[in-house]
Amino acid sequence: EIELASKNIGSKIYHFESIDSTNNMAKKMASEGAAEGTIIIAEEQTGGRGRLGRTWVSPKGTGIWMSIILRPNIAPTEAAKITQITAAAVASGLRKIIGEDVGIKWPNDIIIHRKKVCGILTELSAELNSVNYIVVGIGINVNMDTKDFPEEVRRIATSIKACVGRTVSRKNIVKEILHSFEELYSDFTYNKNIKKSIEICKKYSVTLGKEVKIKNKEKEVVAKAIDLTEDGQLLIKNQSGVIEKVFSGEVSVRGI
Ligand code: BT5
Question: Residue 235 and residue 80: Cα distance in Å, rounded?
Answer without folding.
Answer: 15
